[in-house]
Design brief:
Structural class: alpha+beta
Distance between the termini: 31 Å
Strand content: 15-25%
Strand order of the largest sheet: 3-4-5-6
Order of helices and strands: HEEHEEEEHHHEE
Shape: elongated
């Protein structure tokens, strides 16, 4: 669900940056704004406008997922690569999702939270999927980077 307001902003207001940085600016001329969607021909079908908005959000998501610094590592979630100095580790999709979820959490993440968020399990299944994936990920990081503390096991769950 996306909620937004439509408002007319004059070119003077745009020049003076009198708009919220979170506003999505839709215009028919190039303004060189990161939050602008350029519509060259108007009127435009609503479906085409929605497509343009979706493309903008996807580009932003891709940009936001590249070269993220996590401790002494750089992680690119688009290419699923973990880098430290001249060494690179390829991650599986689940490994990248685990790291991404853990990095966004201030507290330790329980096995149940990872099951729900990364695998989408809604019930309390008796499974060792999370533990197995975390074990293998830790092993890969240890073998490649010699780091045994990247993912820590705490009494409440896992933490980076």
């Amino acid at each position: 669900l996306v909620s937004f307001n439509v408002k007319k902003i004059s070119s003077t207001e745009i020049e003076k940056n009198k708009f919220e940085i979170s506003d999505l600016i839709i215009s028919n001329s190039e303004l060189k704004l990161s939050n602008q969607i350029l519509i060259e021909k108007t009127p435009i079908q609503l479906s085409k406008l929605i497509d343009n908005i979706n493309i903008k959000f996807l580009k932003k998501k891709i940009e936001d997922q590249k070269d993220i610094k996590i401790g002494k590592y750089i992680v690119n979630f688009n290419s699923r690569k973990m880098i430290k100095q001249n060494k690179t580790l390829s991650l599986t999709e689940k490994e990248a999702l685990i790291i991404n979820f853990l990095k966004n959490s201030d507290n330790a993440v329980s096995i149940n939270q990872l099951q729900k968020s990364v695998w989408g399990y809604k019930s309390k299944l008796e499974t060792h999927t999370v533990e197995t994936h975390v074990y293998r990920l830790r092993k890969k990081i240890l073998q490649n980077f010699g780091d045994k503390n990247f993912i820590q096991s705490l009494k409440d769950g896992y933490k980076i």
